[in-house]
């Protein structure tokens, strides 16, 4: 049982969770190949493809895109409704907040600053002369690394893993949700919903606050 009165940690996926887009699909759109990359992303999120291999395949398409082009994608940051309010609520409770993403630090960094998150962990795009090379630095932040990151962050801040929450939308979030004390599927693929403790179908992250408060009230009455 999550105890909101004790120190805790909530870890969010980024793409289609904290923000409303899949960044890699939007970057591919700059190269005129969004539909092609989106199809691969969708299959990976359903758990039909190996995440690391599919990521490397998709990043190859991005070679030659400039830093200036990339800046246009986060202007403004397409934050999911309720995200800022939910993070603020957790911070008032004294909880730590983080984004752990199979996406890219190029996007998680600004998002961390905007939402005042405590940490961001994601993949590193490789650059040469202010253009993407079409490669991503190793090791890749895949499903297992996301789960391991939740545990390491909890350890760093001396938080009981049982008092952690993970929020995601795709199959690559399954190990992270399973590692957390409470797993939340947000507008998620069927594979993730199947293992989640809480399923939120509407695109408003503040619905998680409502769900948690209901659980606390029900536990208090039992």
UniProtKB/TrEMBL annotation:
> What does this protein need as cofactor?
Mg(2+)
Q: Which GO terms describe its molecular function?
A: L-phosphoserine phosphatase activity; magnesium ion binding
Catalytic activity as recorded in UniProt: O-phospho-D-serine + H2O = D-serine + phosphate; O-phospho-L-serine + H2O = L-serine + phosphate
Q: Where does it sit, as one GO cellular component term? A: cytoplasm
This protein's UniProt keywords: Amino-acid biosynthesis, Hydrolase, Magnesium, Metal-binding, Serine biosynthesis
* Active-site positions on this chain: 13, 15
Report the EC code(s) recorded for this entry: 3.1.3.3
Q: Specify whether Membrane is a keyword of the entry.
A: no
List the pathway annotation: Amino-acid biosynthesis; L-serine biosynthesis; L-serine from 3-phospho-D-glycerate: step 3/3
Q: Which family does the similarity line name?
A: Belongs to the HAD-like hydrolase superfamily. SerB family.
What is the name attached to this protein's record? Phosphoserine phosphatase
Q: Which organism is it from?
A: Pseudidiomarina salinarum
């Amino acid at each position: 049982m999550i105890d909101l009165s004790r120190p805790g940690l909530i870890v969010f996926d980024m793409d289609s969770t904290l923000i409303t887009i899949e960044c890699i699909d939007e970057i591919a759109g700059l190269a005129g190949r969004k539909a092609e990359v989106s199809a691969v992303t969708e299959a990976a999120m359903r758990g039909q493809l190996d995440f690391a291999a599919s990521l490397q395949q998709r990043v190859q398409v991005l070679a030659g895109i400039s830093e200036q082009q990339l800046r246009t994608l986060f202007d403004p940051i397409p934050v999911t409704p309720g995200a800022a309010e939910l993070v603020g609520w957790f911070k008032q409770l004294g909880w730590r907040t983080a984004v752990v993403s199979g996406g890219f630090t190029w996007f998680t960094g600004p998002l961390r600053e905007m939402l005042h998150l405590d940490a961001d962990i994601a993949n590193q795009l490789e650059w040469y002369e202010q253009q993407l090379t079409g490669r991503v630095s190793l090791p890749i932040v895949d499903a297992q690394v996301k789960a391991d990151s939740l545990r390491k962050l909890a350890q760093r801040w001396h938080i009981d893993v049982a008092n952690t929450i993970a929020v995601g939308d795709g199959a690559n979030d399954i190990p992270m949700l399973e590692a957390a004390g409470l797993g939340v599927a947000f507008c998620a693929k069927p594979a993730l919903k199947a293992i989640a403790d809480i399923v939120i179908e509407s695109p408003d992250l503040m619905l998680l606050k409502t769900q948690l408060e209901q659980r606390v009230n029900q536990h208090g009455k039992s």
